[in-house]
Amino acid sequence: MESVFIHQLATAVPQHAVPQAFARETLKAQLAGDRLAQRLVHRLYTQSGIDTRYSVVPDFAEPGKNAAPRVGLFLGENGRYTAPSTKVRNDLYTEAARPLFKEAAEKVLAGSGFSEGDVTHVVTVSCTGFCAPGPDYFLVRDLCLRPDVQRFHVGFMGCYAAFPALKMAKAFCQADPNAVVLVVCLELCTLHLQLGGDLDRLLASSVFADGAGAALVSAREPQGAVFELSALATTLTPIGEDDMAWSIGDEGFDIVLSSYVPEILEANIGAALAPLFAQFELSASDIDRWGVHPGGRAILDKVEKGLGLGEDTLVPSRRVLRDYGNMSSATVLFVLQEILKDSKKGERVCAVAFGPGLTVESGLLTRC
Length: 368
Prior knowledge:
Elements: E1 5-12, E2 16-19, H1 20-30, H2 35-46, E3 52-55, H3 86-110, E4 121-126, H4 135-142, E5 150-155, H5 162-175, E6 180-188, H6 199-207, E7 210-218, E8 227-236, E9 244-249, E10 252-257, H7 261-278, E11 289-292, H8 297-307, H9 315-324, H10 331-342, E12 348-355, E13 359-367
Parallel strand pairs: 4-5, 4-6, 11-12
Antiparallel strand pairs: 1-7, 1-8, 2-3, 6-7, 8-13, 9-10, 12-13
Helix pairs in contact: 1-2, 2-6, 3-4, 7-8, 9-10
């Protein structure tokens, strides 16, 4: 079977940096009439493991000295929270997603040794907005790719969706050794902020962020440091269908993110990775590097415990969580970019992400 490689990884974030401490205090001020919600916000934000997130929405970015109060998607002229409709939020997605998709794609091509004319397939990934023509179409236009480039979009799959996209890319390259597949994952999670004392909403507001990650995949002979896509696998945990979900509401997308998710993952992560490891008769102890989707600090803690990993094993995941937050499908590409910079030739890397269902997607990569 033809070997397939991730030749290059690249990332991009919006311009508005949101310090976690500032977001915490801003949100607490919006919940001034609900002492319980304020206490929950303080605890969730303080213990999140996040220092900074990025957003296409300016409302909660820290203003400079003597700056006027921000007026944007969520904050009205009186500085109070308003609840914009799903249409208003999606209109901003349509406007803001296009340039960020382009930025991530241009970055990954610039460092890859491939040109725009080499790209044969485009796979885009997003679950935080909809438009047609979609991001796959606009990437062809904005990058001046050939009009006959094959285009695919992976939509509404959540935090694990980079893996189905990479599976598609690998299949295309094994079917055609000359294929060059551009994969771009982008999520604008902060568009769907919802206030209220509901724990799921407050938990989501404390971790989710905006960002884009891109990968260039091909079976062509690699130049420089690359990952070989050795194997990919998927499975469902026995329980958890109601603990992580994502649906369309009248005031943005409604997320269910149960506080039980970390415990479910701790109990099931070993069995979930068994189908991947079985392909090469490996175990967790045979893995040199771990690229775990940082869905939150508690998730990383429980996965680490469930697999019996050392305290420093998930440093790349914790670093991405600290500096960017949880950007849904794009996040694992940020983690893999960190690992690619630091890993050595021949090292095995296990990448894992979780999403609605609970679905566990995993991949075994080899640093070449």
